[in-house]
What does this fold into?
Amino acid sequence: MINRCDSNMKILMILSKEFTIDPRVYKEAKSLIDAGHQVTVLMWDRKGESEKESKIEGIRVLRFRNTFSMNILPNDILRNPIWWRNAYTKGLKLFKNGFYFDVVHCHDLDTLQIGIWLKKKLKVKLIYDAHEIFGYMIENSVPKIVSKYSFRMEKRLLKYVDYIITVNEPLHDYFKSISDKPVSIVMNCNKLIIKEYVPTNNKIFIISYIGVLSSNRFFPQIIDKLAEIKDIKFVIAGRLENLDIYKQVEKSAIKYCNVTFLGTIPVNKVIPLTMESDCVLCPLDPSFKSHKVALANKQFDAMVCGKPIICTKGTYPGNLTEKLNCGLIVDYNLDAIKEAVVKLKDNPTLCEEFGRNGLEAAKKKYNWDIQKHIFLQLYKNLNQN
It folds into this structure.
């Protein structure tokens, strides 16, 4: 139970992917550390490529690797129950060995069952941090029966949660409609890094894309399309989630002298790369339900750096971009994206207007200092209840 005589808490965060590439989890954990709390992140290292234990800016990170039985299973859907059971056992062991955590903070639905077991066993508080509407996120990559089950599972598990955190208004409204638990919005904003607009000083126009490499974001075809534009450089940093597409991007990029593929980059490299860019790409398929309601981290990256963004119509990032007048909103096709890049390249004044608008919005609302205050206040309230 939470020690009400001590404002400093111990928190166990549970995450089903690599900690170093998830900016939301890092910012939340670091904010708690800076506020005097202790945080351990227990994560699923699906590829087994990182250290089993490390310390990152005061955050203890423990990585659980696939067992032999997990590796012989054909997919992560079947591996999930084994991950849950092993993570639960690891959490109990941490508690028994002296890390008497007060709160289990579960990131996304594929960790929530672990948190519920720990809550029931140890009588601790449970936070559900929903980065997405999970069923929407997976519905285009799994059998329909699986995505439908995830909606039912989430609704059933939410009754054990003490608090829900999510990322924007549409998700807030969704969780309020399926649960009576308190819900707060903590957006994936970044820290402000500049106070005033700073124009780039690039000899050629640099477009950056940092994010998931997938066919619904036009990879690898977008490389061939943008490489046709004279006097530009296209810089790509993407996560290895689909090995086939990742390899195709590598193969396509090396064909062109004006395309650079950096592979996967750590969180602390995202803002410097964005700052060096002249514009940011955010091409999302509007037919995906998740894209209609979900945030895109790269939008907030662009805003704090004062860079224009190119988004697709009918998506949440597209709607926000239009509202804030901080970039171009285009149809979901390669020709429209190419035309937008050319338009920005040929119009520095428009780039500056969009960049200034985005930065001003970041300074007023969309920055981590504001979101951090909301986040830490939530923990303070939890400690007092």
Summary: Confidence is low (pLDDT under 50) at residues 1-6.
